[in-house]
User: Fold these one by one.
Assistant:
Number 1:
Amino acid sequence: MTHAPPRGLSAAGTRAVRARFAEQLDRGWHPGAQLAVYRDGVLALDLAGGEAAPGRSLRASDRMLLFSATKPLMALCIHRLHERGLLPYDAPLARWWPEFAQGGKGGVTVRHVLTHAGGFPQLAPSFDWSLVGDWEYVVAQTAALEAAWEPGAAIGYHPITYGWALGELARRSDGRQPRELMHDELFAPLGVAGELSLGLDGPQLAERVPVYSCSEVTRRDPVGRERATSRITELFNGEPMARAQAPAVNAYGTARALARCYAALLPGGAPASGA
């Protein structure tokens, strides 16, 4: 069987993307940004611009906080375990994690969590963010939540609980913590372990690109009086969150590493490292 050569991007298309990238930086929409594009399994574009921090230019090799782009990475690990027969999609989490059945969540299935239909979207107001790096604490807090709706009856975005629910499910069924699981199942095989990880440690902490709040305006606070985005920025720039395993929100990596993970999902997508 022969394969068509990678198509790449046209010269005109590349110029247009580069121009739009530069325009957004010029307008101040991003203090700094990266953009990577895979096509036919090949890295066709890898851009970086703006600042990583005041006075320091952002490079294509700088790791950035990926926020909710982390969620598909956690989901991919769950799908890998499903393929091995470890996690049937319609089995309840309580099969592996009995404590999770608290608060009317006994019927929450793997599929419900993957599709944000589990009914436990928000952490309790008493959640202690200084303990975000304590895995036993965060999963116990997740298990203790009361269901806000009957599992499967509605869909509502689970910003952070998504990752801890799936991460503990993976740990109990497979034995590996989410950080190790992502490394072994995704990052190492795809050759991006040097640029992508769940949380950070050691010298990577000092080199991470900080998060910036470009606006205080939110849907619930259209004039920005509550400084909600600044509070989020402060939380995610703190070392406890950077070190933690929060498999819904705190992967750190480059755009090209993340793009490689996503490209691997496509027919003819990014091959395993060395393939």
Number 2:
Amino acid sequence: MPFVPHTDQDCARMLETLGVACVDALFDEIPEALRVSEPLDVLPALDEMSLWRLMQERAEKDRIKLSFLGAGAYEHYIPAAVWDIVGRGEFMTAYTPYQAEASQGTLQVTYEFQTMMCRLTGMAVSNASLYDGASALAEAILMSVRANRKNKTGPVLVPENVHPFYRQTCETLVRAQGVVLETIPCDRRSGLISMDHLQRYEQHGDEKAPVPTAVVISQPNFFGGIENPDALTDWAHERGAIVIAVVNPISLALLKPPGEWGKAGADIVVGEGQALGMPLSSGGPYFGFMCSTKALMRQMPGRIIGRTVDQSGRHGFVLTLQAREQHIRRAKATSNICTNQGLAVTAATLYMSLLGSTGLRSVALRCHQRLKELLSFCQTTPGVTPFFTGAAVFHETVLRLPVSAEAVCARLSQSGILAGLPLQQLYPQIPGSEFGLLVCTTEKHTSEDLHRFGAALAQAISAQASDAQASDA
């Protein structure tokens, strides 16, 4: 449909009908202190040709020949068929499937996605996606408060090794609703959650300990380490807390699914689905997933697709358990999530369908093997060692360099290599973080890529050390 702007005559007729003098009068309820008093400092308008040139120039800056950056966004190989199919009009332009009789294809794809996510996570129920992994965790925290009937006012324990952006998002979304988030420090040697740091929540004699409402467990954690979820899950359940798992879906092809953690399994599972068929594309698209036990399904936000039988005995798919504000009294709704990431979910469904369980496991194994190779190459350089010790890793880990990690990254970027994430940028509180470099490998990295990175890293460290000596002299 073409865009037809309102003419001055249209606006004048509208104002006359409403009985107001000007458009500004329509916004008189906005306090003066919140209004912009000066014109916005924006660039002058560009014609179409100039705009395309500007966008091409900016796109060129994103070209990286070789990347080892992970930190929540991962470059996996995507079979060509995935986006060829997703690009079809039936999927690309489809909107909310409110009319089930006209949306069976869209509904079935989403239903299949839910089924796959339940099998991957070992959980009973999945929703039809959320905005991204960070907001999915925030929604899971709110869900845990609603679901924990015995303890709605206790703190939600969020370990320090949960992705910092996820923790920031949770702070933004749940603090205003009275939810108390408490950060649990990670062990400085291993980078894992330490049971010692949970002693504060243990009962000691007559001293009353705070009882947590929920406990978040990231698997793998932000540093790439693999936690001991069985002990943590049982510890939380023994205190009546809801267990929220934050997982990398690719890793679940190798690791124990959250539904099997401890004696009873996790209660809620969330994560970022970008690794399941989404290109990085300068920051998107992303989508969050959420699964839960059957007992908590009525507290789950967002959409759930169900399978049913009509009056003629034919199987069909419908939206079900819609506890959103469009379908229920606002005060009773679980959330106001109106739009899921349907197109991204479709791509993820196709990705998992094409790979199957065997293919997904092969991808996960290659990711892990590539990291082992990378570590063997890097540690031949004097002074390069693991930053954390005593923890198994999946396809991401932190290296300790003998010189500044930020300086090394800057040198490698000149050769078209995105070396990773300097740890100090997000964890300045960890001693020695200025020497920490978070690196990641996927199945797309070849042995030649790893050799090149190892050699370039050694050269950058040597050059940086020489420059430091010269400046000292």
